[in-house]
Amino acid sequence: MSNPTPYTPPAIWQWNKENGGQFASINRPIAGATHDKELPVGKHPLQLYSMGTPNGVKVTIMLEELLALGHSGAEYDAWLIRIGDGDQFGSGFVGINPNSKIPALQDRTDPANPVRVFESGAILMHLAEKFGAFLPKDGAARAECLSWLFWQMGSAPFVGGGFGHFYAYAPVKIEYAIDRYAMETKRQLDVLNQRLAVTEYVAGNEYTVADMAIWPWYGLMVKGEAYDAGEFLQVHEYTHVLRWAEQVGQRRAVQRGRMVNRVRGDLASQLHERHDASDFETKTQDKIAAAASSPSSSPAR
User: How far, in Å, CA of 261 to CA of 60, rounded?
Assistant: First the structure.
């Protein structure tokens, strides 16, 4: 395999130029806030600051599933953090997540003692344990569920930061990098496919936080909705993952959760902020656009 642009790393790496690519403007080798900006706080016990990426969707699915079970304490305000604009580097967001990644949750059930939770897996566990739902309480079932939850947390960076980055976003196509991460992505899909050949859901016969964590990454991938790479990865081969992806995707709470903080796709599927259950019917972007263009919204002449 030839490399048209050989590169010899210097003795000491220095940040003296943008690395190119879609996310060059927000990538940097230092942590901390870049600007002062307080976060808004709504009326509900849970305040979510996020965006509708796979990691963000995990949490909104969980919240909608809890509400569907009747847990009124899971009512939440979802505020949009536009990561392309650098909102995650505002002082308020960094105060909740020093790693400047979405999603971030502030649990204000006790307003005098708010609890910050960051990293999507930690948020799922916090909510599951808080409400006693979607996570087995003990024994082998709990161990199995947590194992698959953390499988996703450890594996998905190879899919997103590895395959997805080099296949879809890098400014140049590097054969070695794409081959390396395509191989690993297909291996992971095969792990999941073999598991789902013998169980209805990932952790067993019950729907759990493991499914909520894995579906936005691997479920959408086999449905051809990630990186436009379905044909390249031959996702039709993973028949058991496809069965599971369709089954989970039909859940009403999953469909609602996927809409929250979403900024891509059909306008009717985008609910930039969620502050009430009625927002799904009244405040999607198609409704907002229609209201803005209606004659009644124009200034009086």
Answer: 9
To the nearest 5 percent, what fractions of the chain are helix, strand and coil?
50, 10, 40
21: left (phi over 0), alpha (psi -120 to 50) or beta: left
Strand runs labelled E in the chain: 46-50, 76-80, 104-107, 115-118
* Residue type for position 115: V
**Do β-strands 76-80 and 104-107 pair in parallel, antiparallel, or remain unpaired?**
unpaired
pTM: 0.94
- Sign of the Cα torsion 258, 259, 261, 267 reads positive
| Tokens 């708010």 sit on residue | 114
Separation of alpha carbons 146 and 140, rounded Å: 10
Inter-residue contact 21 to 74 (CB < 8 Å) = no
- pLDDT, tens digit, for every residue of 249-276? 999 999 999 999 999 999 999 999 999 9
Distance, CA of 240 to CA of 183 (rounded, Å):
19
Specify the DSSP class assigned to residue 115: E
